[in-house]
Design goal:
The chain has seven helices and 13 strands. It has 271 residues and is α+β, with helices and mostly antiparallel strands. It has a single domain (3-270), classed as Glutamine Phosphoribosylpyrophosphate, subunit 1, domain 1 (4-Layer Sandwich), CATH 3.60.20.10. Helix 4 (128-138) packs across helix 5 (145-159). The chain is globular, with a radius of gyration of 17 Å. It starts with a strand and ends with a helix.
Length: 271
């Protein structure tokens, strides 16, 4: 499992406080989620490409994380990784980017090779999360992002057991946050900002828990609250094979990376 954090704002802002100095900042969360970190920063909303910084080292031990907190933007897609599938390597570090699209994932899709068909883009790394991103982008319709997310998540539920399908996805205009599985997701409205996170990062009142199978759309031009809707529906969710995947939670650092690499090789061999 991993941790995700997102922010959209009316004008370019800093999230240095949430990353470093809040009551439960991402840098503290990275002590347990120590398999790498990444951040996509969209300086402006409107479909432009983000600045992407990613490192396969733990954020709390990486000076680049401190420097990255100086970046300002209107949309942020941030991830700290706790590897369960794939080695500790740059190509396995979230968020993944294709053009102006980025995705970070919290959870593990056990039979992830089944997400991809022969004609689809091959992952650069060996994570289930990148395979999910490639599946989404293969059929992505910029005019219908929610329908595209629905199709990708339906495929994931139908093809494999999973621990979580929690994702933050941005097209450069908005940030989409989805929850399905074992892990939590929360959102907070501030004046001229919306936040979404795996864990409440501050002790501000007003954090809301996202329910299962709910997709939030966080729009930097409409900041009163996220738009919320069901994505898959009760019938498909009832068939989802949600299970615990991280069977060695005590592992850290290189040992965790080795175990995650072995899991990925086993998944690839089984097809």
């Amino acid at each position: 499992m991993c941790r995700v954090f997102g922010c959209v704002a009316a004008e370019p802002v800093s999230i240095r406080h949430e990353l470093l100095a809040a009551e439960n900042p991402l840098i503290r969360q990275s002590e347990e989620h120590d398999s790498g970190w990444g951040m996509a920063v969209y300086e402006r909303a409107g479909g432009g490409q983000p600045q992407l910084v990613r490192f396969p080292e733990a954020a709390h031990a990486d000076g680049e994380f401190i420097r990255a907190t100086e970046l300002r933007g209107r949309i942020f897609n941030v991830h700290v990784r706790r590897a369960t599938m794939g080695e500790l390597a740059l190509e396995n570090t979230h968020p993944f980017r294709l053009g102006n699209y980025t995705l970070g994932h919290n959870g593990t899709i056990v039979r992830y090779p089944l997400l991809l068909e022969p004609e689809m883009r091959r992952p650069e790394g060996d994570t289930d999360s990148e395979a999910l991103f490639n599946r989404l982008m293969h059929d992505f319709d910029p005019a219908a992002p929610v329908e595209s997310l629905r199709a990708a998540m339906r495929t994931a539920v139908e093809c494999s057991p999973f621990s979580g399908l929690n994702v933050l996805f941005s097209d450069g205009d908005r940030l989409f946050a989805y929850r399905l599985g074992l892990f939590e997701l929360h959102w907070l409205a501030r004046p001229r900002q919306l936040l979404v996170a795996s864990e409440r990062v501050t002790d501000e009142p007003g954090w809301h828990s996202v329910q299962q199978d709910v997709l939030l759309t966080l729009d930097p031009n409409d900041l009163e609250e996220p738009h919320a809707e069901r994505l898959l529906g009760d019938e498909l969710v009832s068939r989802a094979q949600i299970q615990k995947v991280d069977l060695a939670p005590h592992l850290r650092g290189a040992e965790r990376g080795q175990a995650a690499a072995e899991r990925a090789r086993a998944a690839a061999a089984s097809g």
